[in-house]
Amino acid sequence: MSELFDAVDALLASRSVLPPPAERRRLRRAHGLTIDEVATALKVRRATVSGWEAGKAEPRPPERDAYARLLDKLAELYPTDAAAPVRDAAVSATFTAAPDPAEARTLSTGSASEAAPMTANENPQTTSVPIAASPAAAPRPAHTTGPLSTSRRPGAKKAAPAGTSAGSTDLRFENGPLAVVDVVDGKTLAYCTGGLVLDVPAKSLPALVDWTLREARLGAPRLAGPGKDADPLIVLTEAALERYGLPVTLTEEEKHAGRIPENHKVIKQLARAEWKLTKRGFGPWARIYRPATGSERACVQLCIPSWNALDSRHWGEAGQLPPAELARVLGVYASRVMTPRGSMAVTGLELMTALHPPTRASEPDADGKRHSEHNPGSLGKDAIDPMHFPPCEVPDGHPVLKDLPRFHVRGPAEKLFEEAYDWARPMTDAECTLRHLVGIDVNMAFAAGANGLNVGLGEATRVKAPAFDPKLPGSWLVDLSHVDLSRVKVAKDKWAELDGSLLPSPFTPKGERPAGPGWYATPTVAYAQELGYDVAPIEAWVRYDNGRYLDGWYNRLRDAYLATMADLGVDADLSPEDFLAAMDGYKSRDPELAIVVSAIKATVKGGLGKLRERPRGEGWRPGEPWRALSRPTWRPDIRAAVISRTRINLHRKIVKHAAFTGQYPIAILSDCVVYAANGPSPLDFLPYRDSKPLPGGFKLGINPGLVKHEGTQDVLWGEEVRERFNAPELNLARYIKDGTVTDLDNGE
């Protein structure tokens, strides 16, 4: 009989009556509970509880019965007739209890059609500061007037929500850098960072832009003194797209064009309201602005996930998240890096400019007026004339190469080819007797390569037969074929005898020894000297105007990465064993923050890649200039220098490791290195003593430049894969993470 009773109880639990979503939220907040506390008690994810309260999902057994029990008890304590008064939909916000920084807070705003217009710059810059949530404040009386805000006790500070950094609050942007606009039950809402939710009165896209600039209090202060404040970012969900008359998805033709047609009704609405679009038109990352008048600006950035604005390669499933969760992901990124300006490549490049604005205000002249002048340490506001670039530094098809024969292939003596490693070799007999192949990966390798790097800020000067200067940025034509890896310096006045046949050359991406003169960036030539060999450049293009342009960029991205990894339980001061344990499954601890980590990494690689952006259609023909050449940040020499230093940093560690242990890499792909070992862990071949690593060698840790475990496979797996594809030098570093090899990958 007890089994029957249990079955009946289970049946009842599966249909437990729950109050409407809004009442669920009211009851939780009335008792001062956070979403995280409820999620922990019910052993579900925070996003799950958020979905229940938003009405986007319903709980199932066994959680449903427990959730219903919680709500029943809360309903007894806080009956409906005791609820706080409904907020004034025109101008105020009323709280029933001290708001939870991690949950939704709702503010209502007035009409967007009553304020005076603002103005903008066509090329505004985006910056940000950490976003703080509204504090636990006394309720604001209903029917108050004045600008939109949340009331605070005198001296009270806003508390930073989980996953963001605390910082000073600029009241102009008190609601954060961005909002995700959605439509729920016919009502348009803007989900901001820290759980804030705003009522949106705008009925059209022009009105939404107007409301954003005048009432929403969105945006972020500049990152550098001479820079510009960040424009607000509005993310439109599919429901919001329908509300404002935009397509939910793009047609194939529109995807190819990267925009909707200029005759679309919404674009006509914007034109009638005297709003303009940039030359890229209305696409996944649209910018809507009015020309600047003096220092006043009016510009709003739109992000449309269903138009593939959030590339899944970098943003994972962010585009499918509920509005509040998406606002959290983008908000954490914005507070730690900057408000996204487009793709990760665009944002990475914009971050460089935001940290080093091209101009600044001069000292007052005789009349007391200030003027715009070059900002020292920046790349300036004007692009380098394409015809003034060294021919060796530019990619094929560049205007400076227009006189080359059509099918001419430039060799090492004509072209600077600084790229990441893609090298592998057959295993030795001794390595085949070992059991495992273990991959280690350098954290934020290219960011670490940029740290402290001296790069050119202006045009290059051609020099014949120069004396090499390791502190002078440039491109050097020099013969490095005499560098013998069998005997190299590993410390001052200390030489090491190595098996050079088991090492890649540090001078070429494929690890092949140079056969004669070639063009190299300064870090590569300097490393040849470091290994103990003389260098005699034949020619060089050097930049006497130089500086550590990327230091601030590196520091901001490093701090963002470390802070987010710390939130995921991976701290910078862990022991090697604890670090490996903390990295195991770290993404599952908070999948939303794991998305932020991925986006930060992509910002590094994308930003550096954008320094040498290639033509992107637009009817371009070889020998003609393309759009990217008009940017001051089109600097292939800076990209080459960073990649050169990154590759050299890795080779230096490999040499130190080989000299000390006699172990050599089997494969290298960019920042991943594979070794054969008797055990499956990096600790089975890294020479740690009392938790201390080999000086100058590989060190486990989360800081940029240190290494983590990439993956482990059996030695037999490696041999089988190479035999299957008849490729004894197949790069196993490409597949070491999960061991899946579906087809031969040539690295293109």
Summarize the structure.
The protein is 29% helix and 14% strand. It has 748 residues and is of the alpha+beta class.
Based on DSSP secondary structure assignment, what is the total number of beta strands? 23
Oligomer: single chain
Strand content: 5-15%
Radius of gyration: 29 Å
How many separate helices? 21
What's the mean pLDDT score? 86
- Order the strands across the largest sheet as they lie in space: 1-4-3-2-5-8-7-6
Overall structural class, as computed from helix and strand content, comes to: alpha+beta
What gap, in angstroms, lies between the N and C termini? Answer: 68 Å
Low-confidence spans = 82-166
What does it look like?
This protein has 748 residues and is of the alpha+beta class. Helix content is 29%, strand content 14%. An eight-stranded mixed β-sheet has the order 1-4-3-2-5-8-7-6. A five-stranded antiparallel β-sheet has the order 11-21-22-12-23. Strand 7 and strand 8 form a beta hairpin. The chain starts with a helix and ends in a 24-residue tail after the last helix.
Write the layout of secondary structure elements.
Elements (H helix, E strand, L loop, with lengths): L1 H13 L6 H10 L4 H8 L3 H9 L8 H15 L27 E3 L70 E7 L2 E6 L3 E4 L5 H10 L18 E4 L1 H6 L8 H6 L7 H8 L3 E2 L9 E7 L2 E8 L8 H4 L7 H14 L7 H12 L3 E3 L10 E3 L47 E3 L4 H4 L3 E7 L2 H6 L4 E2 L4 E4 L9 E6 L7 E5 L2 E4 L19 E5 H9 L8 E4 L3 E2 L3 H17 L8 H8 L2 H4 L1 H20 L25 H26 L5 E3 L2 E6 L29 E8 H10 L24
Parallel strand pairs: 1-4, 2-5, 5-8
Antiparallel strand pairs: 2-3, 3-4, 6-7, 7-8, 9-10, 11-21, 12-22, 12-23, 13-20, 14-19, 15-18, 15-19, 16-17, 21-22
